């Protein structure tokens, strides 16, 4: 029998996975999606968010950014109304969606740029330069 190092946070990882799957439960049953999938990464100067939003007009998207959060809302519209007797299969999601994305660092929201092309929304926001922390000696009383 091999010895395995004890990790006090292993159970926390399991709880996190269970909670995540619990909140995905309604979309698995009802077949829709509640929010777009995103990638978030940093470069030297910027934070970049890429959101997958196929089939949505940029006029149906709203984007809000503050110092450390991106909020994306929108609506997927049906091109034409299908009658149940004519539909063979309907799997696509139609309706409103929303996604709030916490950013890893504080950003300059007033300098944000966004581009929507081929169903991908790319958001680039410059990072706030971290202030240099100066240490000084404090006399103890």
Automatic annotation (TrEMBL):
Classification via InterPro entries: A-crystallin/Hsp20_dom, CS_dom, HSP20-like_chaperone, Small_HSP
SHSP domain sequence ranges: 29-141
Coiled coil: none
Keyword list, A-Z: Stress response
Ranges for domain CS: 33-138
Pfam family, one: HSP20
Signal sequence interval, chain numbering: none
SUPFAM superfamilies, sorted: HSP20-like chaperones
Family from the record: Belongs to the small heat shock protein (HSP20) family.
The protein's name: Heat shock protein Hsp20
Protein source organism: Ruminiclostridium papyrosolvens DSM 2782
């Amino acid at each position: 029998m091999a010895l395995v190092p004890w990790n006090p946070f292993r159970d926390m990882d399991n709880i996190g996975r269970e909670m995540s799957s619990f909140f995905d439960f309604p979309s698995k049953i009802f077949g829709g999606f509640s929010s777009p999938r995103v990638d978030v990464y940093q470069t030297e100067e910027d934070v970049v968010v890429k959101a997958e939003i196929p089939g949505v007009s940029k006029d149906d998207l709203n984007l809000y950014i503050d110092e450390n959060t991106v909020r994306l809302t929108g609506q997927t519209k049906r091109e034409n109304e299908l009658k149940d007797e004519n539909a063979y299969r309907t799997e696509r999601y139609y309706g409103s969606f929303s996604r709030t994305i916490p950013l890893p660092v504080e950003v300059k929201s007033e300098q944000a740029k966004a581009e929507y092309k081929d169903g991908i929304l790319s958001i680039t926001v410059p990072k706030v330069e971290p202030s240099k922390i100066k240490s000084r000696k404090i006399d103890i009383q």
